């Protein structure tokens, strides 16, 4: 008997209410077609009022997030805030390095993945330490559990994909507010994310190419890959359907994706690169490599019409759904490398926005 996704999720809700959690979990796995495991208990999802709607599931984290140590004065400032745009309100955290002396610093916007939060993401990517060393600000918008039970950015809902409204609009507006508050360099504003955060980073960059100089996506999906939850689940398992051509990305892009990622299929990384290079040149250069910890990778450089690098695709061999080179203090990290944080920053600072653009 062929059950629809909705029928299977209804069965899961009924089993959860009856206290039969293992059977409920099995029902959800059938709904996902043997796909990714739940990143949070079924009972928690049921308590949130929804078993599936509004959720995109992740594999269980490879690391347990530790509580971040309080920042010392010489480490810079890592403060919390709240921002409202139209009808949406989101919390955020902002890192400002010490001894900035009125400089117009770069700004990197970091969008966490499902079940994560700014502290967890900062710890796993080690981005604040890099910001202190290299001198830039880091903005971490936070997805609320009331907006998505798994704290996923709602990249797969059409109402959050437009320039004028939804989460994509809020993130862009928050970025502008922080730029004004901190006096950051408007030519060096970048955005990056992991998984659902990576998918949302691509959407925000596609919708606001005048704001961001470059974008980094780790284990994410191309903008326009899905506009409904069933489409999102299908794209995660095998890439966007032919009828959902990715929205073009007109700014430089760097992509990291594990070729053994069972949560977001690696074909999505290829589709991201296609979205970025459709308006550029066709020449490319392939560079195999290996991290100090033994992780092999294939780095493909795609050139623009002027001969400069417009996009980089890092295919990580044997890697799953995790931030490459990340720290064990954060979730979804793979210490075997390569160092995605270092390479993203290198790519970003090689691609400032040209004056007048």
From TrEMBL:
Keywords: Hydrolase, Signal. GO terms for cellular component: extracellular region. One of its GO terms (molecular function) is hydrolase activity. Coiled coil: none annotated. InterPro entries: AB_hydrolase_fold, Esterase_phb, Plant_Biomass_Hydrol_Est. This is Poly(Hydroxyalkanoate) depolymerase family esterase.
